[in-house]
Amino acid sequence: MDGRPRAARRQGARGLRLAEPSPQPRLVPFFPTQIVIESWPGFEAGGAALRDTILARRAADRDPSPRWRSTPDLPHWGGEAARALCDHVLRRIDGMTVDKEQRAEGRGFRWTMTGWAEVLDRHGAIDLRSHPGSSWTAICDIDDGGGTEGGDLVFLDPRYPAVRMPIPELRPRRRDGTPDQHEVRIAARSGAIVMFPSWLMHGVRPFDGDRPRVSIGLTFRADWIG
């Protein structure tokens, strides 16, 4: 028992059953990792003001390091644009989440969000990390800093034993014929939002832009009700 409502029922939940084998071979990808990438609809209206608010907050801290991270209470000091961004992402991750034991009277959980801002100066980077205890994480680029190299958001393959196999250079062939990857990079782009499961290891490569790279991180924890 894990102390949460319906834990015993959840342990006995049945998984997906595949159809009977067909005469022709089929490639069936097990355990896909859901990553959603989109442009923030409110970026044109609120992005510049939000960037200026974050940079002013950083300046008030007088932190000379190439990487600055705010306190985790962004909605309280980030202004209307920050709250609009948080609300937008909340709607997205809520729509991507299924409670397999949802009752007829409604859902049995509520979301608790944590939000912060990060600023990278030239050569700044963010170490690989995950967010245990949360269900979803989102990163929004408010200003990509204008760099031509580096600053990519990096994801590591969560199937950890794969990189410890005797010949890790041998990869399965995917449906499109390309080899499976153990690392994926997404280039920074102002206004882009990337949403992914919080257990996925991620970081930011060293950045070479001439102006600060400004981003926002959000995590969403599901708290069970009753």
UniProtKB/TrEMBL annotation:
Pfam families: 2OG-FeII_Oxy_5 (PF13759). Gene3D superfamilies: q2cbj1_9rhob like domain. It comes from the Bacteria. Residues 1-23 are annotated as: Disordered. Residues 1-12 have a biased composition (Basic residues). Coiled coil: none annotated. Signal peptide: none annotated. InterPro entries: CHP02466. This is 2OG-Fe(II) oxygenase.
